């Protein structure tokens, strides 16, 4: 369903509370179910190339080149851990909802592999659940981590013929929600304590907050353009704000010191050499650290919800190998996974949206929050593709 907003544009497929296009909803809204939206991953060797074809659809990449990436999956038996993590997350969300007396079912669908979002939406509608509140498994603002999921919702509704029948809203980006940040802070604290026990001085330690690199042009268009968040757009600004908050928190408790340095690094670049992507690369930075007097490094997967392939291969394999080559003591800290604080925060966001909690009362740990319930017009454009139909945001 499409309705007019106060901005003269539209919020496709929205519930009544979100249809006016306001950044934060002000009307309470009931939902029938929760929609867990994931990236998807292969679950056997025979799935790997078909999965990678899905991921790269429309880009004309031959199977020979896909096979180069496939080696990462084949190293783990052709199985990405991401689907199992989402099964665990779905179950944890169901249990937390029930603990709070909420009987909302949680439907799970992926962008690139079974179970697909189209099937999840069809199952929900078949069960009479037509008002869905979506939770996408990515915390930050960018095309691939927010808008593309919103495009997935619109595509799923169109391909299932459920436009005008099923409505989909989406909880706000949760990069600075306390329960998302807490597991990372705990991991950094443990790493710093272990390094100190091994005799490393604060100035010999470097904290590298790692996230997926994206094309620089897309990064600059991440988030609402009127915010003018500088180089890297909202995507870089959000990561840096969370990293700074974690280090400030640990300094206040005495776990870190002002001499403990940190920085944001990037990983998993996949574009052509001619296309600028966000830098520096995590392995490149690790190689440079010994010359800066660093002897121990903690790699913090700040951009990731769980230990999926980009964590297991790009960090646990490549980054830690780079640290060994550089003669550095190194550790990779945990992702949130199904940490109880994180699961509780997701359900908090569900209840926040249902109750239309005023923005000033919403939990957040950086000055960038709380982020928007309804994505703004022109938010997170893909330079190559432009603006395709998307749910849960004001149409540009």
UniProtKB/TrEMBL annotation:
Fe(2+) binds at residues 212, 310. It is found in: Cytoplasm. Pathway: Porphyrin-containing compound metabolism; protoheme biosynthesis. InterPro entries: Ferrochelatase (IPR001015), Ferrochelatase_C (IPR033644), Ferrochelatase_N (IPR033659). GO terms for molecular function: ferrochelatase activity; metal ion binding. Keywords: Cytoplasm, Heme biosynthesis, Iron, Lyase, Metal-binding, Porphyrin biosynthesis. It holds the Pfam family Ferrochelatase. Its EC number is 4.99.1.9. Fe-coproporphyrin III binds at residues 80, 149. Its main location: cytoplasm. SUPFAM superfamilies: Chelatase. Residues 1-25 are annotated as: Disordered. GO terms for biological process: heme biosynthetic process. One of its GO terms (cellular component) is cytoplasm. It comes from the Bacteria. HAMAP family: Ferrochelatase. Belongs to the ferrochelatase family. Involved in coproporphyrin-dependent heme b biosynthesis. Catalyzes the insertion of ferrous iron into coproporphyrin III to form Fe-coproporphyrin III. This is Coproporphyrin III ferrochelatase. The gene is cpfC.
């Amino acid at each position: 369903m499409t309705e007019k907003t106060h901005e003269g544009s539209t919020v496709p497929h929205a519930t009544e509370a979100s249809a006016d296009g306001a950044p934060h909803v002000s009307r309470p809204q009931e939902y029938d179910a929760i929609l867990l939206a994931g990236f998807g991953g292969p679950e056997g060797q025979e799935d790997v190339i078909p999965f990678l074809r899905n991921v790269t659809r429309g880009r004309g990449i031959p199977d020979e080149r896909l096979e180069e990436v496939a080696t990462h999956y084949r190293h783990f038996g052709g199985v990405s851990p991401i689907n199992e993590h989402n099964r665990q997350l779905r179950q944890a969300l169901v249990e937390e909802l029930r603990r709070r007396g909420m009987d909302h079912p949680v439907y799970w669908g992926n962008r690139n592999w079974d179970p697909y979002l189209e099937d999840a939406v069809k199952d929900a509608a078949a069960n009479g659940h037509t008002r869905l509140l979506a939770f996408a498994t990515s915390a930050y603002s960018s095309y691939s981590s927010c808008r593309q999921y919103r495009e997935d919702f619109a595509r799923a509704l169109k391909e299932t013929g459920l436009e005008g029948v099923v409505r989909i809203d989406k909880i706000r980006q949760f990069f600075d929600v306390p329960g998302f940040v807490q597991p990372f802070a705990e991991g950094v604290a443990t790493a710093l304590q272990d390094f100190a026990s091994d005799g490393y001085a604060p100035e010999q330690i470097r904290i590298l907050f790692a996230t997926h690199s994206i094309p620089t042009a897309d990064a600059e268009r991440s988030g609402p353009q009127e915010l003018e968040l500088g180089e890297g757009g909202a995507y870089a600004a959000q990561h840096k704000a969370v990293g700074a908050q974690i280090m400030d928190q640990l300094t206040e408790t005495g776990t870190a010191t002002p001499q403990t340095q940190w920085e944001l690094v990037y990983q998993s670049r996949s574009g052509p050499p001619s296309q600028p992507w966000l830098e520096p690369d995590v392995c490149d930075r690790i190689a440079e650290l010994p010359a800066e007097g660093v002897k121990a490094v903690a790699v913090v997967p700040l951009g990731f919800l769980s230990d999926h392939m980009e964590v297991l291969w790009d960090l646990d394999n490549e980054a830690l190998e780079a640290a060994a080559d550089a003669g550095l003591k190194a550790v990779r800290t945990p992702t949130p996974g199904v940490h109880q604080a994180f699961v509780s925060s997701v359900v908090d966001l569900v209840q926040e949206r249902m109750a239309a909690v005023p923005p000033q009362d919403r939990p957040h740990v950086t000055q960038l929050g709380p982020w928007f319930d309804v994505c703004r017009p022109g938010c997170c454009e893909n330079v190559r593709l432009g603006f395709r139909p998307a749910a849960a945001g004001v149409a540009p």
